[in-house]
Amino acid sequence: MARKIDNLPERPPTRDLRQLARVLKFLWPYRARMAVAGVALVVAAGCVLVLGQGLKRVVDAGFSGKDAASLDTALFALLAIVCVLAAATYTRFYSVSWIGERVSADIRRAVFGHLLDLSPGFFETMRTGEAISRLTNDTSLLEIVIGSSASFALRNTLIMLGALVMLVITSPKLTVLVVLGVPLVIAPILLFGRRVRRLSRASQDRIADVSTHIDESLHEIRTVQSYGHEEEDRRRFGERVEAAFATATRRISQRALLVALVMLLAFGAVGVILWIGGHDVLAGRMTAGELSAFVFYAVLVAGAVGAVSEVIGDLQRAAGATERLMELLATEPFIRAPARPQTLPEPKGNEKAGEVSFDHVTFHYPSRRDTPALADFSLSVSRGEKVALVGPSGAGKSTVFQLLLRYYDPDSGAIRLDGVEIAKADPRAVRQRLALVPQEPVHFNSGMRRPPAPILGCSSISRYPLALHSDSAWSRSGTR
Predict the structure, then answer these.
(1) pLDDT tens digits for 179-206?
(2) Strands 372-381 and 420-421
(3) What are the two backbone dihedrals, phi and then psi, of residue 254, each rounded to the nearest 5 degrees?
(4) Which residues of 41-61 are buried (b: 16+ CB within 10 A; e: fewer)?
(5) Which of 4, 53, 222, 264 has its CA 20 to 30 A from that of 124?
(6) What domains, with CATH codes, occur in the chain?
(7) For the residues of 26-47, what is the DSSP string, one character each?
(8) C-alpha span between 89 and 85 (Å, rounded)
């Protein structure tokens, strides 16, 4: 019988922004709140653009005209615009942040619920830490993008386009200088920005190395102390800490250089505009208010371009996170109930259930396809019969129980419970008939409720007395 292995393809994460469209199904239930956030975003961007005209009126009508009434009117109008801007910004920020948190929580619930349905074979071929990372880190990245970066990019795009229009209206000649100068200012910022991002990722990787070493050393502290490995662990941990410090130092150096470069280029560009525009004001070709508004809009354009360029990196990382999360959700569990599962027979009266048979079963674990865990294995256990499986570690004792619990399906052969082939029954119904008694019980510290049917003991099971007892010889690995 051919078998499909639950696994995800190994390939580098995508940077295709179209992957983000796959999140739309999680956003759609909150479209009303998205509409509110969109309206607030447009209003806030419009208020920012109107501030430039308010500044122009304050300078021309108030300061230059020496008219106190006009100055008061202009300032009160400016204050009103600021109040509207503040209200719109609050609405936008709260709405998009709420959407980001809500969608992130929905995705976490969907992915975790799906992971619980995947067979143990999936977790043999994929590290549990990788699944946890996708469930936590990737959803956190999506939360930041949906709840902050996306609306931030859209807001700055609107401001950039609107400010460019206002620049053309205010002074076409200076606008040409701004359009030509923006790439010269943005290019080095993008260059150093990429370096900072690469070093930030490297810094996070080094911190992850430190965390991994801490986890391994403390989790296996008995082994560390038994072999007198404390000094070696201290040395290796110190190496990882120093590597993290060195990477962080390079990142700080590049970031400091980036901040200094931004200040130099931004204030230098403003100085050039003021120098050219100042001569136009002195020549009467534009007013002081128009020059003030132009500088305001030029700063908006430069800031918006820089902000959007920074957000693109976040969006690309979010695209990779989306792909990894959607891969998990798209992974089909190999162990599933058939479309029309056969019903296990119910015991009648004092009749006991629990007849088990293995018929020429052969099985390989997904992670060890070259070595069979069971080869042409047959076993028959009658109702009420007590059978002990004895053998060295790796002989396949726990494999028998894992197949009986249908954590895996055999490569060939059939397994029957009370005459019903378990592959044709609902896995949950099969597992409700079995009680597992491990030598080392597992304690869940997350407040899990007691399951409805006893699965860690068989003393209270009278009609389904088939109990699986695991001894220390083969219960530790959980695979053999």
Answers:
(1) 777 777 677 777 777 777 677 767 767 8
(2) unpaired
(3) -65, -40
(4) bebbbbbbbbbbbbbbbbbbb
(5) 222
(6) 17-330 (1.20.1560.10), 356-470 (3.40.50.300)
(7) HHGGGHHHHHHHHHHHHHHHHH
(8) 6
